[in-house]
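Regression check, zinc ion case 127:
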Amino acid sequence: MSEYGYLACVDCRVSMWLGKAVTQPDTTIDYYLIGDQARNWQRPDVSRALWKILADHTAHQITVIASMGEQYQDWTAGQDTNGLFTTIGGDGISDVPFDTYLAGLARPATATPFSSSTQSEADATHD
Ligand SMILES: [Zn+2]
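Current build output:
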């Protein structure tokens, strides 16, 4: 049976689907994987959703929970009086797909190549 992970804001009852737990032989979780085409950190939608959820929930109680864990079992069994979580990237009825969550988010800034003259100018402004 596979184990899955969620990044969850306990205060807002919102979580982000992290995918299947990929484990070491000793069952330590090595990383989470959504699908099998690319690692999560190589997927722009997953990466942007992660950074957006961190910004949206600044100063809130954020945790990573596993589907086999007691905390997750309590929440999904409805034993938590604050109700179930809405999952970003999940496929449940009340969940929010990544593209919907990211709609309206500003496009990523164009990267500016780093140069030594830029660093020197930056250093000069902090003297
Ligand atoms: Zn929150």
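Comparison notes: DSSP finds four helices and five strands in the chain. The chain has one domain: 4-125. No diff flagged against the previous build.
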